[in-house]
């Protein structure tokens, strides 16, 4: 018998905010997930180095997790000195949790660009894909995604409990038009970020003086080419 599925949400979380958390909360409730694992990465393969250090981002993710029942932090990608590829993380989790369905949470923008991800054809061998809608992203799917949906999409939430992997579930969630870039720009101007991220995270950012125009940018290993 399979265990209850768990949700997986990866990212730089620079900083973590409601655009990350609210879709995850809705997926947790809609799919009856046992937990949501927040997986911050150290070297993102698909974008520039984060503004804050791995230690600072981990501290913010931990604070966010404590405010949300059923949320936990998985630090495995922070321990890597190489780019964090989703397929490698899913393979490691599958080995650790052989009887637990894995639900990898992503936005519609990520689904549309899935064919650019590292070993993307193998993702559904290890997890279900749970896709949240994003403002401004219409579902005009490229051919590879159209084919994936034709073979793997389900509207039945219970189906994700009955198989370890292989389904794509499109969420009907409340779209939140907020990016970490926009939030960092707001913080750099000294504006109040209230209600855009957890209060404890906002307090940590203020206490540490993060994202201010006079804040020092930490040194980090150079990002490597490639995709998630």
From TrEMBL:
Residue intervals of the Cytidyltransferase-like domain: 8-185
Pathway: Cofactor biosynthesis; NAD(+) biosynthesis; deamido-NAD(+) from nicotinate D-ribonucleotide: step 1/1
E.C. number: 2.7.7.18
Top-rank taxon: Bacteria
Keywords linked to the UniProt accession: ATP-binding, NAD, Nucleotide-binding, Nucleotidyltransferase, Pyridine nucleotide biosynthesis, Transferase
The keyword Coiled coil is annotated on this UniProt entry: no
Alphabetical list of Pfam families matching this protein: CTP_transf_like
CDD domains: NMNAT
GO molecular function list: ATP binding; nicotinate-nucleotide adenylyltransferase activity
The reaction(s) this protein catalyses: nicotinate beta-D-ribonucleotide + ATP + H(+) = deamido-NAD(+) + diphosphate
InterPro entries linked: Cyt_trans-like (IPR004821), NadD/NMNAT (IPR005248), Rossmann-like_a/b/a_fold (IPR014729)
Gene3D superfamilies associated with the record: HUPs (3.40.50.620)
GO biological process: NAD+ biosynthetic process
Role this protein plays: Catalyzes the reversible adenylation of nicotinate mononucleotide (NaMN) to nicotinic acid adenine dinucleotide (NaAD).
PANTHER family xrefs: NICOTINATE-NUCLEOTIDE ADENYLYLTRANSFERASE-RELATED, PHOSPHOPANTETHEINE ADENYLYLTRANSFERASE
HAMAP family in the record: NaMN_adenylyltr (MF_00244)
Similarity comment: Belongs to the NadD family.
Protein name per its UniProtKB record: Probable nicotinate-nucleotide adenylyltransferase
Organism ancestry: Bacteria, Pseudomonadati, Pseudomonadota, Gammaproteobacteria, Aeromonadales
Encoding gene, per UniProt annotation: nadD
């Amino acid at each position: 018998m399979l265990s209850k599925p768990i949700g997986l949400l990866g990212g730089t979380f620079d900083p973590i905010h409601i655009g990350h958390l609210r879709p995850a909360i809705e997926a947790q409730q809609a799919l009856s997930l046992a937990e949501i694992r927040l997986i911050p990465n150290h070297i993102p393969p698909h974008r520039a180095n984060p503004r804050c250090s791995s230690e600072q981002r981990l501290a913010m993710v931990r604070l966010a997790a404590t405010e949300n029942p059923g949320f936990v932090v998985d630090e495995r990608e922070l321990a890597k000195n190489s780019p964090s590829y989703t397929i490698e993380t899913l393979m490691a989790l599958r080995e650790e949790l052989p009887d637990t369905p894995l639900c990898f949470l992503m936005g519609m923008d990520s689904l549309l660009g899935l064919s650019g991800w590292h070993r993307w054809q193998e993702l559904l061998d290890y997890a279900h894909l749970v896709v949240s809608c994003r403002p401004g992203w219409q579902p005009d799917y490229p051919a590879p995604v159209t084919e994936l949906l034709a073979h793997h999409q389900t509207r039945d939430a219970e189906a994700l409990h009955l198989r370890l992997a292989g389904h794509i579930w499109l969420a009907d969630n409340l779209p939140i038009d907020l990016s970490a870039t926009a939030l960092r720009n707001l913080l750099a101007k000294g504006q109040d970020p209230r209600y855009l991220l957890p209060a404890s995270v906002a307090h940590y950012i203020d206490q540490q003086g993060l994202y201010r125009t006079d804040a020092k940018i930490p040194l980090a290993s150079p990002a490597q080419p490639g995709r998630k």
